[in-house]
Amino acid sequence: MPKLIFARPLLPDERRELVRMAESSDPTMRARAKVILYSAEERYRVPEIALLVGLGPDKVRKWIHRFNTQGLRGLKNRAYKPGPPPRFRGMTRKKIIEIAQTPPRTLGLLFSTWTLHSLRRYLIEQGIVDHISHETLRKILKEANVDWRKHGVRKYG
């Protein structure tokens, strides 16, 4: 049988804020506040609360745990950005974009257009980056709306 879980006893200020949140126009915050109020004040169990607020039991447990460990702050939405933080920022990113927009011949290279492979190799050889994957390089250039392949052979006549 699963262990019963309840929200910890409420402080007066917390209770006032939860009541305010339970009357909010934001349905998400309203449901979270009700989860805590039903648990702490009414001592309803997780399955009962889930039925009352229209959430799954796993979500009800999540909000009770977060409230118990973080207080009201735990009920707020977290800024979520999937994946690791960008590795290349600021001046490094700016330099990568600048080089990608520079025709290779003007840099003394013996080819006219960049490939991701040649651009990557140049960036590493010049010490601009220690390492960069082709995919990361492609994403940086795409986000900057840069087409690194546009430098073609000069047409005469």
> How many strand segments?
0
Major sheet attributes? none
Classify the beta-strand content into a percent band: under 5%
Kindly state the mean pLDDT as a whole number? 89
Into how many domains do the coordinates divide?
A: 2
* End-to-end CA span: 85 Å
Q: What is the approximate shape? A: rod-shaped
Query: How much helicity do the residues have?
Result: 40-55%
Radius of gyration: 28 Å
- pLDDT < 50 runs, ≥5 residues: 153-157
What oligomeric state best describes the polypeptide chains here?
Answer: single chain
Summarize the structure.
With 157 residues, the chain is mainly alpha-helical. It has helices spanning 12-22, 27-40, 46-53, 57-70, 90-100, 116-125, 134-143. The chain folds into two domains: 12-75, no CATH class; 90-143.
Keywords:
disordered C terminus, 7 helices, 157 residues, single chain, rod-shaped, mainly alpha
Notes on the structure:
This protein has helices at 12-22, 27-40, 46-53, 57-70, 90-100, 116-125, 134-143. The chain is mainly alpha-helical. The chain has two domains: 12-75, no CATH class; 90-143. The protein is rod-shaped and about 75 Å long. The model is unreliable at 153-157 (pLDDT under 50).
Please render the helix and strand layout as text.
Layout: H1 12-22, H2 27-40, H3 46-53, H4 57-70, H5 90-100, H6 116-125, H7 134-143
